[in-house]
# Entry
Amino acid sequence: MGKGVSGMLTGVKFAFLGGDARMIEVARCVSELDASTVMVGFEKADVSFPDSVKVAFSEEVLKDADVIVFPVAGIDDEGRVPAQFAEQPIMMTEDHFAVINKKTQLFTGIARPRFGALAKRHGLALVRLMELDEVAILNSIPTAEGAIALAMEHTEITLHGSACTVLGLGRCGVTLARVLAGMGAAVTVCARKPSDLARIREMGLTAIPLEHLGDAIASSDVVFNTIPAMILTSDILARAARFCVIIDLASAPGGTDFRFAEKRGIKAMLAPSLPGIVAPKTAGRIIAQTMVRMVQEASSSTGG
Ligand code: NAP
# Structure
């Protein structure tokens, strides 16, 4: 690996494998710090910054890289790499993991168990950026904005004065609840931990324990789910008004019984990757900031 002198990434070779517009911004950021970048799966994208080339997927790309950047969503259980701008599908097999140098740093947003297991089996360090608070908290800002934009698009009322229920008080839940309250919505938050219920009250919002979720849903205009577990089950949804709109932010498959919601005529949608859709530049910079720091730290600790 080259030298990360004075905050620069001179000589560091990055390989970007698929992803969406966020990754173009990440690549632009590292390129500005003098790294070289190879872009796999960006045939249909405008990628024009110095020392960057679009290449086809190959073992050589993986062998040569100091840093490999996977999409925020990681790879699926079949090894498919999601690539919005690709002309050809990209598949990471076990053999591909085997050729990667053990010193190469791997970054992803999230990793399904198989992806994590493959990296581990081949002795590769895989950083899950979205598990880091410093990334997830900032990423919750474009997520909340995207969720609110969707709610506005799918309702006939203003969010101001509406009854909004947020499920979960994690990184996304806190931000969403706070922004909605700032817009004048009457915000209820459902959580399971007594400490979270106390925090919700401290924020001036209505706190409902998760076991009373049905009561909250019954009086909601809009429900935002951030809990990655089946939570909006058919018996809970049966209590929702038909005009209620459900925006499910939780990672796939979400926490909503979508089949039942549709049967009941409730508008419910899984809304993945909102930062990449509504604010790819901001979201890309959030990822780049932490990734660059970690690459520089690794470089200085190995004396590279
Ligand atoms: P987080 O900080 O871990 O918060 C998750 C929340 O869900 C916490 O309040 C947690 O409560 C609760 N929870 C988890 N499992 C639960 C269960 N089985 N029963 C009840 N409550 C449970 O996560 P986050 O960063 O806010 O992200 C939330 C979800 O949104 C994740 O699935 C993430 O992948 C996804 N996400 C989606 C987008 C998008 O664009 N759609 C963007 C960012 C994140 P406890 O603290 O009690 O466990």
User: Anything to note?
Assistant: The longest strand covers residues 186-191.
